[in-house]
Amino acid sequence: MRISSSSVYEAGVTSLNDQLAKLVKTQQQIATGRRILSPEDDPAGAALALEEEKALGVVNQYVDNIARARSKLSLEETVLTSSTSVLQNARQLVVNAGNPTLSSANRAALATALRSHYDELLSQANSKDGQGGYLFAGYKSSTQPFTQTTGAGTYAGDQGQLKLQISASRQLAISDSGQDVFNPGVSGSDIFATLETFITALNSGAAITAADLNTALTQIDTAANNVLRIRTTVGTRLNELDATEGSNLDAAFQYESSLSNIRDLDFARAITDLTRQQTTLEAAQKTFVTVQGLSLFNYL
Amino acid sequence: MAGIYGIGVQALNSAQLSLLTAEHNIANVNTPGFHRQEVLQVTNFALPSGSGYVGQGSQIESIRRLYNSHLDDQVLGASSQSQFYDTYYSAIKQIDNILADPNAGLSPSIQGFFKAVNTVANDPASIPARQVLLSGAEALVSRFQSISARLESIRNGIDTQLESVITNINSYSTQIADLNKQIVTAQSIVGQPPNDLLDQRDQLISKLNEQIRVTTVTQNDGSYNVFIGNGQPAVVGETSFTLALQDDPADPAQKNIVFAQGGGYTTIPQNLLENGGVLGGLLSFRRTSLGEAENALGRVALALAQTFNNQNKLGQDLNGVLGQDLFSIGSTSPTIYANSGNSSSGAALLTATLSSNAAGALTTSDYTLAYNSASSNYTLTQLSDGTATTIASSALPATTSYGFTIALSSGTPTNGDKWLLLPTRFGARDISVATTDPNRIAAAAPIRTAEGATNTGSANINLGSVNTASQPPLNSNLQNSVTITFTSASTFNVTDTTLGSTLATGVSYTSGGSISYNGWTVAISGVPASSDTYTIATNTGGVGDNRNALALAALQTSNKLANNSSGTPTTSYQGAYAQLLSSVGNKTRENQINSAAQQSLLSSSKNSQQQLSGVNLDEEAANLLRFQQAYQAAAKMIQVGSTLFDAILNIK
Q1: pTM of the model
Q2: Which terminus of chain B has a smaller tally of CB atoms within 10 A, N or C?
Q3: CA distances from B517 to B256, B497, B510 (A)
């Protein structure tokens, strides 16, 4: 078979180019740590990596949302715990006020003490979060929900409940409206109305009747039970946050490892490849020089 | 005696020619397109005599090149295909690289944008969080625009490349016509083939073939006729024809190859030029991959903008008013181009507008419209698969199933009028953020629910939601105050207290069942008591409400694009982008593989061709030795002749 001199040369150069291209590719993969340098390298893998990245981003967002939810709910739990203790103290004062030996001055003193509990409770009902929004105003977070009035409590908030997305399928409530917590305007369980009525009775100078006492105690107990009920649901929600966070972190880990499987380089293999390609290129260079040096003209 | 001299001198000449030819071969070992030459040495007519035929030596009949048209044609075909795939590959590789760049890709921007939406959902009253959302929207829009700009610059680059390809083609055609003339003349002078001129012409054909696939037909006088496309002549004998670029009559944004003939220009169907060469690669890439990439990107932009706007309109912003568009789509989606050949007398002006819920219906295809006066119909053809839809002209304005509406805004169509419709091409280029006011993000729902303070039953109403099925446009009574009053534990009446009208009476109650009026849906669950009331009213002061922000955030993971045959969207924004990525990646890979395959086919056919026509220096070195010896032997013959002649002269 005839072989033309330019074929010999071209074959040599082509093979050198090919070997070099492979070497450079492996080198780039090692330098970036990525198996897929552009979608061309693995179109299906590149598309899948995008989807996994998106899923990972979404799950991480849920984790962020959970952190936010936890801080909101913890704050609410703290406030509700204080409210419970204020209600307990108020109840004690009311019980004391039932003592028939008290003078009207004693009752006035009790009224002052009870008023300070009232104020404390009112300030708790008007608590704000770190961003300056009212905790118990429903959606009307910039409107002060409770104001001191005579008679029944008035509520300027609404019954809205803020929810956050904590997993793909779950929106969790991270607030409770003042309506649900303190039942303003609801006859028989409006704690502000109850306290206001009792303070008025203490200040009236007359002794507290057994009926007044019973009504007040029943109503304070109803209110305290309601606050406790809400506190329990907050606790349940905090537990759910922990559980969901765990499963979100698991999912994030899964996505990360699958993303890494798709996109990242197997270094051990790449280094081996690089060494092999380097050897091949050196061999190609050496043989190229040798073959090109062969000529009959050397002997003429 | 004379014979001895004669044979000697002829042998000397033959050896000299052979030596010259070997030297010519050696000198041209690196000349592109050179075919090895050899001398054709034949014996002279023998002289008949009584003793038999006396040989009269040899002469050189011709010097010929080692050429086989079959082998050379194979190289031509392979190199034309190889150029096609190389060109396509380097063009699509540019898109591949744009999409590969993690900093330039679209996905991180979409991710960042929705992260900002979630920040607003977490803290709906916060102005800084809202500002972050607007910045995220700006970043997203600018990413769409920058990718689109890079695709557009690839499109413009193609016009520039076409320009230079056409220049090359025209120049090669001229040179081939010129060589045709020289070859015919040279051949007629000595009746021998002008080998080097033939090589030059074949080399030009090969160069031409790298630019555009051509076929050649050899004429009796030795000239070539060269044809392109489906038989348009590029060279006929000594005449060459010119190709030029002209605006595409259908799409003014791109240029077509036209053929100069008879002082005018004739259009060549562009798909006929896609059969090889650099030109074929460029045209094919522009028609398929580039258009598809622009459209796919535009579709993601349009779908995201429109679905986000639609959801924002279902909400209430921080100013307490209903939400408006957050993104602006621009008026170029869809774009409709009238063919420049349309009749000017009717001057029909068609317009196309995007449907209000187009996201799922939009495809990545372009469309053509053609008018037929006999049936008074328009035919709408989806270019990606050729699906044709007939629209009666009386049906205009007509809503198509592709997410746009077509209307005749003025004039009368004439038979044969054509239009090109690009629904998504400019979607990514022309998207922008419609507001700079962070208050305008509608994080809240426009309604709120409440339970009557004196209710005695234990049923609760949920927070309610705005229906998305046929809204926007919003139900005009959406924010009216509505009271649901139970008349027993199992029935209720519904009254619109704003209008003072009764919406329903005696509705039977199911715990947890959906109750929908005025464009909203609520659910009441538990056991209600007679005369319990529940109200639905406008969400005044609801700055801490994040219900609509949650719905906006959920758009990221919802399927909004690419309806299946039953009209259900099948993919999300990022999913559609991933499809683009995978499609470009596949096409790039396919062309890379084809290019490599053609390269190896090319080198194998080149090897076959070189086996015959290539110069081997060792062979020529051996030939030099051989012909040197032949020359020396011939010289010796003359010397012998001379000695013999002297012997005769010495007879006295």
Answers
A1: 0.87
A2: C
A3: 57, 13, 16
Condensed to tens digits (0 to 9), the pLDDT of residues A210-251 reads 888 999 999 999 999 999 999 999 999 999 999 999 999 999
Q: How many angstroms separate the CA atoms of A137 and A144, rounded?
A: 7
Residue with tokens 């912003």: B317
pLDDT bin (cut points 50, 70, 90) of residue A1 is confident
For residue B237, what are its two tokens? 């004998």
Write out pLDDT tens, residues B3-29. Answer: 778 899 999 999 999 999 999 999 999
**Gap from A6 CA to chain B (nearest CA, Å):** 7
Given a cut of 80, is residue A59 above it in pLDDT?
yes
In-domain check, residue B412: no
Strand pairing category for B367-372 and B377-382: antiparallel
Does A139 contact B556 at a Cβ distance shorter than 8 Å?
no
CA angle A251, A253, A258 (to 5 degrees): 95
Q: In chain B, what percentage of residues exceed pLDDT 70?
A: 99
Specify whether the CB–CB gap between B152 and B253 falls below 8 A: no
**Cβ contact (<8 Å) for B586 and A168?**
no
What is the pLDDT of chain A when averaged over all its residues? Answer: 91
- For residue B185, what are its two tokens? 């003349």
Residues in CB range of A17: below 8 A, 6 or more apart: none
Report chain A residues whose CB lies below 8 A from the CB of B539: 139, 158, 160
Whether B45 maps to a domain, the answer reads yes
Q: Which residues pair with B388 in a beta bridge?
A: B381
* Cis amide prior to A39 (ω within 30 degrees): no
CB pairs under 8 A between A and B: 199
Does the beta-carbon distance from B584 to A65 stay under 8 Å?
no
Within a domain: B55: yes
pLDDT digits (tens, 9 = 90+) for B494-504: 999 999 899 99
Work out the average pLDDT over B66-83.
93
Among A83, A236, A228, smallest CA distance to A146 is for A83
> How high is the pLDDT of residue B265?
86
Other CB atoms within a 10 A radius of the CB of residue B17 amount to: 16
Domain count for chain B: 2
Q: Does the beta-carbon distance from A42 to B585 stay under 8 Å?
A: yes
The values of phi and psi at residue A219, to 5°, are -65, -40
Cβ contact, residue pair A2, B545, below 8 Å: no
Using a CB–CB cutoff of 8 Å, tell me whether A51 touches chain B: yes
Residue ranges of domains in chain A: 5-33+265-295, 61-258
Asked if B584 reaches chain A (Cβ–Cβ under 8 Å), the answer is yes
In which domain, by residue range, is B40 found?
2-66+621-649
Count CB-CB contacts under 10 A for residue A85. Answer: 11
Mean pLDDT, range A98-127, rounded to an integer: 91
- For all residues of chain B together, what is the average pLDDT? 92
What CA–CA distance (Å, rounded) separates B522 from B467? 10
For domain A61-258, the CATH architecture is Up-down Bundle (1.20)
> pLDDT tens digits for A148-162?
765 556 788 899 999
Which of A 74-103 lie inside 8 A of B, CB atoms? none
Q: Which of B489, B504, B538 is at the close of a domain?
A: B538
**Which of B508, B538, B568 represents a domain boundary (last residue)?**
B538
Q: How far apart are CA B346 and CA A217, in angstroms?
A: 90
B484 within domain boundaries:
yes
Is pLDDT of B648 > 90? no
State the pLDDT at residue B453.
81
CB contact under 8 A, A140 and B585: no
Contact between A57 and B556 under an 8 Å Cβ cutoff? The reply is: no
- Phi, psi for residue A43 in degrees, rounded to 5: -55, -45
What average pLDDT does the segment B605-616 reach? 93
Secondary structure (3-state) at B526: coil
A262 vs B: CB within 8 A = no
What value does the mean pLDDT take over residues B18-45? 94
